[in-house]
């Protein structure tokens, strides 16, 4: 059975399926239904002798006739695959021959006109006439062009009304599912509007462009010079003129509406060209490009939807020797998020270099596009953000989907609580389990209105237009996300917002706010700002992410003979716990070329292999290395003696429960460890060449779990199969390739 095809064994089997109109669509339905065993007999009616003969010789139908009177009385399900304007006479001809139990459906690409035709013939829409439209076709027509797979993976829109019997709708659905299609329902008006915009208008434009050029140049010489762009844009102008004439006559009103909108858009562009308005042109083209890229992502199932649709596994292989080279890992995730947020709210244009083109940061970028901000790029880490000012964001069209990104959700919650419009924030399976009350509770104290799902989980529904006031808030946990969320809300709050943290956490928000000209005060553990100011656009150079660099630091630290240099790594003192911890374990790390870039300290880090020893990790280092623990556990397994981590209960509410998930994987790989409430104890195997065995690892939508076990593979005796690693793209696109470039042996399996 072909992929996408539904099983129909358990469905009620139709005795006789009659196709009226033996063309490409009607023929393909009969072929597909026959392959799925949907009916016992296949009948066809067509006035054209050639189509009937073609249908019989291809085995599309068992019996063909020019007369409805001959075949309709016996039919159980009748599919009308005739041009939309022929529906009325065909329905009228069919009416006297229908048996009472028969179900009728159609394939017309405009629905209001068919509904009208049915009402004329029957006075009202009969309960057993269910209108539908398969979104599939080809430039070719005629029964000989029929394809058994034409509908596989395609969408069929049914437009039932309250007159329809549920049983009739169900049968029509089953027919299309048997053909491999996905069936959705829509009302008639919406169907005609959607199709006018996405199908009928582009056809009209293609016909028009080709004809306009042909008129100008009767000998058609001009087409010799036309290349791919012209070909792609005008492909559909080769479609059947008569069919399209009928569609425009049938879907007149919705097409005219779509055409008016389009002409307004063309007028705007014309004015921009006339007046040399470069900003208007680039803003229109960028919006179009990002919409087109989104469409491509939908078609290819890539983009920040990948994680839900593509299966990607890592398989580590024994035999890696040393880790060597000089590399730069992608840009810092935390700083990338903040660059988009502050750049969007600033006055003026912000230029960003080194932006992380990973799914999480892209989710933030898309969110601001959805709120009307013009953002160019990213191209090779460069992004240009045309800020809209503190009051310039627009209400997004629908819920904002944030993929796997907890940082986006928590920081945005603060920013959006202060906007005049309502918003809803949603995420993937991992994000949907993460606690959001840690931001919702203090935001409510500021005056925000936020609803969450059960136990403070996403989605977050934020009611706009609530005035906020500054608060003094003692963070119950060391969290930069919560601190940043409240500072962002504080930008619009009345008075001062003060946040006191129990231990230092990353301070990128504070540093970047200052970079955008906003006054932020720091007194001991308390950071504060006063609402009502403005941000001024700036330039941002994002360092390489120390959290991503850590996977390679540990790789070099555990592989004898390694010598690896990581360039331009952010070594902000609120993020450098991993350097301190690895040094305490005996790792050989050398920092050079230390400098400040755009308010953030950076350095090149050279790591040479040295034997590691187990340590008790100082608790003050925990918030400074919070994202690095999964791979530090791998280092601990390769160290001599016991490593103990405590005071790290926050690890349990990351993208996964990182204590439990890492412990499960370590145990499966033969490493002894004990789970503690707030940490873990790991018995290292020291100099032993092969520390890990072989196992299958489930990474629970957590990028850092996947990458950590990929590093473990370097010291494993067998293969480690790491399942569902597409999520690695959230923070580290190109991870596997880079690992292999420096000496790793990591196979990527895509399904
Ligand atoms: C982040 C803060 C940390 C960190 C996360 C990014 C940020 O989360 O784990 O990856 O960009 O502010 P918490 O604030 O929950 O500790």
Automatic annotation (TrEMBL):
Entry binding sites for phosphoenolpyruvate: 333, 406, 434, 481, 658, 704
PROSITE patterns: EPSP_SYNTHASE_1, EPSP_SYNTHASE_2, PDH_ADH
Classification lineage: Bacteria, Pseudomonadati, Pseudomonadota, Gammaproteobacteria, Oceanospirillales
NCBIfam families hit by this protein: aroA (TIGR01356), PRK14806.1 (NF011381)
HAMAP family referenced in this protein's UniProt entry, alphabetically: EPSP_synth
UniProt keyword Amino-acid biosynthesis present: yes
EC number assigned by the record: 2.5.1.19
Pfam families noted in UniProt: EPSP_synthase, PDH_C, PDH_N
Family designation: Belongs to the EPSP synthase family.
Catalysed conversion reaction: 3-phosphoshikimate + phosphoenolpyruvate = 5-O-(1-carboxyvinyl)-3-phosphoshikimate + phosphate
Function noted in UniProt: Catalyzes the transfer of the enolpyruvyl moiety of phosphoenolpyruvate (PEP) to the 5-hydroxyl of shikimate-3-phosphate (S3P) to produce enolpyruvyl shikimate-3-phosphate and inorganic phosphate.
Subunit composition and interactions: Monomer.
Major localization listed first in the record, in broad terms: cytoplasm
N-terminal signal peptide: none
Annotated binding of 3-phosphoshikimate, by residue: 333-334, 338, 479, 481, 627, 654
Compartments reported by the entry: Cytoplasm
Pathway info: Metabolic intermediate biosynthesis; chorismate biosynthesis; chorismate from D-erythrose 4-phosphate and phosphoenolpyruvate: step 6/7
Transmembrane segments: none
Protein known as: 3-phosphoshikimate 1-carboxyvinyltransferase
Keyword Transcription found: no
Swiss-Prot/TrEMBL keywords: Amino-acid biosynthesis, Aromatic amino acid biosynthesis, Cytoplasm, Oxidoreductase, Transferase
Active-site residues, as the UniProt record annotates them: 627
Domain Prephenate/arogenate dehydrogenase: 15-303
């Amino acid at each position: 059975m072909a992929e996408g095809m539904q099983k129909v064994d358990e469905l009620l089997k139709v005795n006789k399926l009659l196709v009226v109109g033996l063309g490409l669509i009607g023929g393909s339905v009969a072929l597909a239904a026959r392959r799925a065993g949907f009916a016992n007999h296949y009948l066809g009616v067509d006035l054209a002798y050639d189509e009937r003969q073609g249908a019989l010789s291809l085995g599309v139908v068992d019996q063909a006739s020019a007369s409805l009177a001959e075949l309709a009385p016996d039919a159980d399900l009748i599919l009308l695959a005739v041009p939309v304007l022929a529906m009325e006479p065909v329905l009228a001809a069919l009416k006297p021959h229908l048996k009472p139990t028969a179900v009728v459906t159609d394939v017309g690409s405009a629905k209001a006109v068919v509904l009208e035709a049915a009402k004329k013939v029957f006075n009202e829409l009969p309960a057993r006439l269910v209108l539908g439209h398969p979104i599939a076709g080809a430039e070719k027509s005629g029964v000989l062009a029929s394809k058994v797979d034409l509908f596989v993976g395609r969408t069929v829109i049914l437009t039932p009304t309250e007159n329809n019997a549920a049983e009739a709708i169900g049968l029509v659905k089953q027919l299309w599912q048997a053909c491999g299609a996905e069936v959705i329902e829509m009302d008639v008006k919406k169907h005609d509007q959607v199709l006018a915009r996405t199908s009928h208008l582009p056809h009209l434009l293609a016909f028009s462009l080709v004809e306009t050029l042909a008129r100008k140049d009767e000998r058609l010489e001009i087409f010799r010079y036309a290349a791919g762009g012209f070909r792609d844009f005008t492909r559909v102008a080769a479609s059947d003129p008569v069919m399209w004439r009928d569609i425009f006559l049938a879907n007149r009103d919705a097409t005219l509406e779509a055409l008016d909108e389009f002409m307004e858009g063309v007028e705007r562009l014309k004015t921009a060209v006339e007046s040399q308005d470069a900003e208007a042109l680039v803003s229109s083209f960028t919006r179009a490009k990002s919409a087109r890229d989104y469409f491509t992502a939908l078609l290819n199932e890539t983009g920040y939807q990948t994680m839900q649709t593509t299966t990607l596994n890592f398989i580590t292989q024994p035999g890696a020797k040393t880790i060597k080279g000089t590399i730069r890992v992608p840009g810092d995730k935390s700083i990338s998020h903040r660059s988009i947020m502050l750049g969007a709210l600033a006055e003026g244009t912000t230029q960003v270099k080194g932006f992380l083109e990973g799914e999480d940061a892209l989710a933030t970028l898309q969110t601001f596009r959805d709120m009307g901000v013009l953002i160019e790029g990213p191209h090779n880490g460069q992004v240009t953000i045309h800020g809209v000012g503190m009051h310039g964001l627009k209400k997004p069209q629908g819920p904002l989907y944030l993929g796997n990104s907890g940082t986006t959700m928590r920081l945005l919650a603060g920013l959006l609580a202060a906007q005049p419009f309502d918003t809803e924030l949603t995420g993937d399976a991992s994000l949907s389990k993460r606690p959001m009350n840690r931001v919702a509770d203090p935001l409510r104290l500021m005056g925000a209105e936020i609803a969450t799902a059960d136990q403070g989980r996403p989605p977050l529904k934020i009611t706009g237009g609530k005035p906020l006031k500054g608060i003094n808030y003692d963070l119950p946990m060391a969290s930069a996300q919560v601190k940043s969320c409240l500072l962002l809300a504080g930008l619009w709050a009345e008075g001062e917002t003060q946040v006191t943290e129990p231990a230092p956490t990353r301070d990128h928000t504070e540093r970047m706010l200052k970079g955008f000209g906003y006054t932020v005060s720091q007194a001991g553990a308390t950071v504060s700002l006063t609402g009502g100011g403005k941000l001024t656009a700036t330039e941002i150079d994002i360092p390489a992410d120390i959290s991503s660099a850590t996977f390679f630091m540990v790789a070099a630290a555990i592989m004898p003979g390694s010598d690896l240099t990581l360039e331009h790594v952010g070594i902000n003192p609120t993020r450098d716990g991993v350097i301190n911890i690895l040094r305490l374990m005996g790792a050989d790390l050398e920092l050079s070329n230390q400098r400040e870039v755009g308010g953030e300290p950076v350095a090149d880090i050279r790591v040479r292999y040295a034997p590691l020893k187990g340590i008790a990790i100082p608790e003050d280092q925990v918030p400074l290395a919070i994202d690095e623990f999964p791979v530090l556990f791998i280092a601990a397994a390769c160290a001599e003696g016991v490593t103990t981590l405590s005071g790290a209960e926050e690890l349990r509410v990351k993208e996964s429960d990182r204590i439990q998930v890492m412990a499960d994987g370590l145990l499966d790989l033969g490493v002894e460890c004990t789970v503690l409430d707030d940490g873990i104890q790991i018995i290292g195997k020291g100099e032993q060449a092969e520390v890990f065995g072989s196992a299958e690892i489930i990474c629970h939508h957590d990028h850092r779990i996947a990458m950590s076990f990929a590093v473990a593979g370097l010291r494993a005796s067998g293969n480690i199969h790491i399942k569902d690693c597409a999520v690695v793209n959230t923070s580290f696109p190109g991870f596997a390739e880079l690992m292999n470039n420096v000496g790793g042996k990591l196979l990527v399996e895509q399904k």
